[in-house]
Amino acid sequence: MSSLEIKNIFKHYGAFQALDDVSLSIRKGEFVTLLGPSGSGKTTLLKILAGFEPVTSGTVEMNGRNITALSPEKRNFGLVFQGYALFPHMSVYDNIAYPLRVRRRSKAEIDQSVRALLDLVQLGTLAARKPQELSGGQQQRVALARALVFKPDLLLLDEPMSALDKKLRHDLQEELRQIHSTLGTTFINVTHDQEEAMHMSDRIAVMNGGCIEQYDTAHTLYRHPISRFVAEFVGKSNIFQGVVSASPGGGSSFVCANFTLPAEAGKGGNTCMMVRPEDAEITTSPVADGRVSLPARVVNSTYSGDRALYTLTLADGAHFIAYGNARSGVHSNGADVSVSFAPQDMVKFD
Ligand SMILES: Nc1ncnc2c1ncn2[C@@H]1O[C@H](COP(=O)(O)OP(=O)(O)O)[C@@H](O)[C@H]1O
Ligand SMILES: [Mg+2]
């Protein structure tokens, strides 16, 4: 049974529509990420789930119960929000104990729970410190412990790592994943960082302009994006804009500036085809094996030991990115090469 059902949520701020018919099913214990660019409505959706913002229309159900109008404190959700700061005058211990004191738990129970959470976030030795005596990453771990100590039914995280440097962010991602698998609590995380989303989530909802464009596993989003937006937002991509038209000899063709391919019959008109960089191969001469093979020139390469990432230009001047096996060296800038890829590795969007 699904633990959280978000059904047809619309949200207007005055005349501005921030959410446009958003529906999502989240299973108990799942780690779901809302991924999208700034302004796509991620925080708005999270605030609605937390009970901080009313919906214009639509419903939120938790375990079959309609909670759309329930006040935040009655939802029993843990929150790690930007601007939901630690209490500066309280120690780490007291910050984490706070939600339990509000709930009037016994002293013994509070102590046991706080100790357990301090261990979970690896801050056992810093219990007496004040927040300002901690690093940014340590403060985020205290915020996480405070949000989890009362065993919430759901944890909502709004870009909890955006203020941290890359290394720290990576460590905290790893920790968060482990905490999730230890506790089995349902997590909903918000980020604009596609790598973070792909590393951590069971499923990702890609948001764009107040809509959910696609909701699926990282692998499906990457291999089978349903729109150009998803293809470009999740991972690196090469996109060919073209048209589908009837071929003189029957059937349909996809025609773009660089090549023509047989296409499924049906709708004509503008369309695009996408190929991922790792599905393309760079060779010094053209290949003739049924793959698309295009002349290209190297404009840049980034060598990383195991491989090199090339930026190429095609005959029409468009850029194409592809990985090359760099064991026997790297093609130099200005080199003329061929880039090839198989039609079955391409994804088409209407
Ligand atoms: N209180 C508000 N009043 C008016 N517009 C708002 C308000 N909060 C957010 N918005 C607008 O709604 C859109 C979505 O915002 P938000 O949910 O914060 O996006 P995200 O978290 O994806 O960056 C933005 O265009 C933002 O300017
Ligand atoms: Mg936001």
* Percentage of residues in strands: 35-45%
Report the average pLDDT across residues.
93
Instruction: Please trace the helix and strand order, writing H or E for each element.
Output: EEEHEEEHHHEHEHEEHHEEEEEEEEEE
Helix segment tally: 8
CATH architectural type of the largest domain = 3-Layer(aba) Sandwich
How many independent structural domains? Answer: 2
**Termini gap:** 34 Å
Poorly predicted ranges (pLDDT <50, ≥5 residues)?
none
| Biggest pleated sheet | 6 strands, mixed
Question: What is the CATH topology assignment of the largest domain?
Answer: Rossmann fold
Question: What keyword list fits this structure?
Answer:
single chain, 350 residues, alpha+beta, Rossmann fold, OB fold (Dihydrolipoamide Acetyltransferase, E2P), six-stranded mixed β-sheet, five-stranded antiparallel β-sheet, 37% strand, binds adenosine-5'-diphosphate, binds magnesium ion
